[in-house]
Design brief:
Pnp Oxidase, Chain A, Split_barrel_FMN-bd, single chain
């Protein structure tokens, strides 16, 4: 099949877009506002965009607390969501009133970060401590401003649980990071394979 993605005339019971752009890593974003209130929310529109400097970003559909808090204080943490914490991660996606702690609601404990003020999730396999670079309001092809916000941050500190370091490398399969698919579906990385890039011409 082929369909008009603007008109969304696919004729299917659910939009297949997210199921096609998959799997998507989940950035479990913790942030802090000026009053010291902590927010924790998962974002599947998340990825890395630069190696050095290390830059990551996530996109929010709506100007949610994560975006507002990061705009206020300029810092956030990307906790890498993993299979053992899948239910807690899902619980933090609930729409709670501002000021209500997702950490507490999901039975999680905040752990102090080293380089930024927002905490990471205790027991997480890895976390990226970030300082805000840009918050970009997205536009469509007609130049209309959307209620879609891209947050870019430079990674200033990286936490890795030592259990997942093997012979100087991160054992990604042992970490079991989870990823978002379409609909209500997720995936877990529990098996890896290697490919060596071909060398370029002389």
């Amino acid at each position: 099949m082929i369909y008009d993605a603007v008109a969304r005339d696919h004729g299917l019971p659910h939009d297949p877009f997210k199921a096609l752009v998959a799997p998507r890593p989940i950035g479990w974003i913790s942030s802090l506002n000026e009053r010291g209130e902590v927010n924790l929310a998962p974002y599947s529109f998340f990825n890395a965009f630069s190696t050095y400097p290390a830059i990551v970003g996530f996109s929010s559909e709506g100007q949610k607390d994560s975006v507002a808090f990061i705009a206020e204080t300029g810092e956030f943490v990307c906790n890498i969501a993993t299979y053992p914490l899948r239910d807690a991660m899902n619980a933090t996606s609930a729409p709670l009133p501002r000021g209500v702690s997702e950490f507490e609601a999901a039975g999680l404990v905040p752990e102090p970060s080293r380089f930024v003020k927002p905490p990471r999730v205790r027991g997480i396999a890895a976390a990226l401590e970030c300082r805000r670079l840009q918050i970009i309001r997205l536009e469509d092809m007609d130049g209309r401003a959307l209620d879609r916000w891209l947050v870019l941050g430079q990674v200033v500190g990286i936490y890795i649980d030592d259990r997942y370091l093997r012979d100087g490398l991160v054992d990604t399969a042992a970490m079991q990071p989870i990823a978002r698919l379409g609909y209500h579906d997720y995936s877990v990385v529990d098996e890896v394979f290697s490919l060596v890039r071909p060398k370029g011409g002389e």
